[in-house]
Amino acid sequence: MFLEPKADNGRIEVITGSMFSGKTEELLRRIKRAKIAGQKCVLYKPIVDNRYHKTAVVSHDKNTLESIAVKNPEEIFNWIDGIDIIGIDEAQFFNVALVEVVRRLANMGKRIIVAGLDMDYMGKPFAPMPEIMAIAEYVSKTNAICVVCGKLASHSFRTAKSDKQVSLGAENAYEARCRKCFNKGMSNQANLF
After folding, report:
1. What are the residue numbers of the active site?
2. In terms of C-beta distances under 8 Å and separation of at least 24 residues, what long-range contacts does 164-171 make, across chains too?
3. pTM metric for this prediction
4. Domain segments of the chain as ranges
């Protein structure tokens, strides 16, 4: 479904879900397959995401591919000549300008693969992901495993104390939780803070 000759009419694919659900792993898998097929690919990440590496995109299970770290989405246009496929990781860390950048790139005939959280730590839509999902041809929602009960998890529960929407962290600051365990945890946190 996601591997084909160069798409000259462009398209947008979104990989979304909670933390620890395999979004980046799936993005890297699609980029690697495209490279095997001889397609020219470039991978981007927001410069603020330096949790595992300054420039490489790194999944939680330590798979990596080199990328270009950019401060704002418009910089992506600097490195697209001769490129068939553009991957963007951690899209939720970009501003809403990413929506128009992605749309323009797809309209130029590029295959765009965007990975990012669909909800923030409060369980609310995490912009610009909802807008990108709305204009995408394909949306894949991934699930993690709830660390509390072992069921499918679709929420990112923040264990570190912070009320900022963007607070970088991994296993030390977040847990994957199902809806029931997420809501119970949020209720408990409200009583603590």
Report:
1. 90
2. 165/120, 165/121, 165/122, 165/126, 166/48, 166/92, 166/93, 167/121, 168/48, 168/49, 168/50, 168/51, 169/51, 170/19, 170/51, 170/52, 170/60, 171/20, 171/60
3. 0.88
4. 11-143
In which residue are the tokens 């991957």 written?
A: 87
Rounded distance between C-alpha atoms, residue 27 and residue 49, angstroms? 16
Q: Which three-class secondary structure state does DSSP give residue 88?
A: strand
pLDDT digits (tens, 9 = 90+) for 107-145: 999 999 999 999 999 999 999 999 999 999 999 999 999
CATH class held by domain 11-143: alpha beta
Provide the 8-state DSSP code for 146. Answer: -
Enumerate the β-bridge partners of residue 174.
158
Distance spanning both ends of the chain, measured CA to CA: 46
Query: Alpha helices of 48-128 — where are they, by DSSP H?
Result: 97-107
Tens of pLDDT, residues 44-87: 999 987 656 567 666 556 667 788 999 999 999 999 999 999 99
pLDDT bucket at 193, cuts 50 / 70 / 90: very low
Tokens of residue 67, six digits? 């990328």
Q: Which residue type, as a one-letter code, is found at position 38?
A: G
CA separation for the pair 185, 166 (Å, rounded): 19
Backbone angles phi and psi of 134, in degrees to 5: -65, -30
